Task: structure prediction
Amino acid sequence: MEASICPPEVVDAAAGAAVALGGYAAALAWLKAAPDGDPAANLLRGRIHMALGDPQEARLRLECVTISGDPGQRAQAELGLIQAGLKAGTLKGSDATTRLEALAFRWRGDETERATLRLWMDLAEQRNDTRQALRAGAALFRYGGPTATTGALLATLQSMLVAALSPGSGLPLDQSAGLLWDYRDLAPAGNSGDTLAYVLANRLQDAGLYGRAADLLDYQLQQRAQDIETGPLSIRVATLRVLARTPDQAVRLLRRTAPIRYPAGMTADRHRVEAAALTLLGKPADAMATLQDVPNARGIASEIYWRERDWTHLIATGEPLLPAPRNLSDVGQAIVLCHAIALSMLGRDAALDRLRGRYAAAFTNLPTAPVFAMLTDTRTPVDPARLGKAMTALPSATPAGDVGDLIDRGEAAMQALATPPPATPKTGARPAKAPGTA
Result:
């Protein structure tokens, strides 16, 4: 069948097959039968002239398609024009990237989109623009569909990501965090990917960006950690949530991961952090219930009762915690002094006299001796000003250990968010929420 009498679609198909085989002369011969304004034929003519090293003629043909073609043909023509401009040196790489980005936004779902994203990524790599390269490459990987080159593409993107997040990359911390968060699905599998996330989370935590560190590790927790691995990671993420002023999220996370069977010690650690979060949420009863099966939880319980001004329970819980009088540590002094305050608040003078007799000698050479003497002096009526002064002089140590420190830090963070910090903050004192004179 002669080309001159073939239907246009047959001519285009034959010419396209010839182009695919590299037979450009044969393709042009077939295209002589197509009308000069046929968009499909002009797309092929543009491709042929590009391949033959004539970008100017290619550009003329493709510009016609941008006027007369359907949306898909116009998208192909725009891509061809960008390629022709780059080949002829009449189009800057930055301008080409802008046009490719616009084309990728408005045309999706076929080979034109895949070629657009690939060229966008290649140009970004040439300019060492990792952010743009990852943006284009990630879109190609996520939405381009599986091809023979998908594995190589993923390996390239992972190498880019690892290099961008390495300590020597010079990328600011907030940008590093943004990159890993935006492209977390591209992170390497296994230990290398986990290490990448953990190192960045450590940097975020050291910078006080607790919420962003928690977000990053929560993704690891949900997507990568399995079974018992979730135990230590859930504790860390929950701790970060507390420090980020979101103890409610800490509680939800710990309860979400509760069905897994953890070793007893790990379960106890999870309950301790949950109790701290519940305390900060103003739910002391729930916190105490969480501690019910936690061994050696008296110190945490006494801290909670102290903060809630529950003097009766504080005395009952704190009595067994009272240390031996010899060589009182900061924690030991705090326990004794808090016990004395609780007894004073309840007017238990006889118990205060016994406490004075037991510990008077031990406090003699300690900086807190005047506070102890004031609190245990039953000859002087309970004075709100006296108790307030005692509060500011208490050691910052707490029998709750790390949990007490976490509550202190979480409470300080929440207070800083709610009110401006004082002009001259006091140091070395018990938390401001500790008992006053109700």
Residues 1-5, 424-438 have pLDDT under 50 and may be disordered.
